[in-house]
Write a structure and sequence with these properties.
single chain; mainly alpha; two-stranded parallel sheet; 2 strands
Length: about 140
């Protein structure tokens, strides 16, 4: 046989007094992070996670600080251009102009100023482009 006991009177009194107690107000501040306050190496690391096309077409144009970071040859030690088709699909730009991609690639290779260590030119690399890269 199961017995159900009512709550003791002091429990009921405590719960009702708790419901009427003032709750502390949470102050919410609307502060946006200032990306310009990030150290240069952190900003560079974030930007390097983008592909070369995204950097050249968008990121470097955000502000002068990012523009200067994107001109740094160390920024271009690794060049990721193998996913260029995703950029064109995302922006609804249609079929990419491969000649323009080759020129963009040559531009970033030049930006690397001899610091290039790794490059991904899958889908549009040619013998002439490889020769251009090797000569730098």
């Amino acid at each position: 046989m199961t017995h159900i006991l009512p709550n003791p009177p002091h429990t009921h009194a405590m719960s009702s007094s708790l419901t009427h107690a003032k709750k502390p107000k949470l102050e919410i501040t609307n502060t946006n992070p200032n990306w310009l306050e990030l150290p240069k190496d952190v900003t560079s690391n974030i930007l390097q996670r983008l592909g070369a096309v995204e950097i050249l077409k968008n990121a470097r144009n955000v502000c002068p600080y990012w523009w200067n970071i994107c001109k740094d040859p160390h920024m271009w030690r690794q060049i990721q251009m193998g996913t260029f088709h995703l950029y064109f699909q995302y922006c609804n730009l249609g079929t990419p102009d491969l000649d323009r991609l080759v020129k963009l690639c040559q531009y970033v290779v030049d930006l690397s100023s001899g610091h290039l260590e790794k490059i991904d030119i899958y889908r549009f690399g040619t013998d002439d482009l490889l020769k251009y890269i090797a000569d730098r």
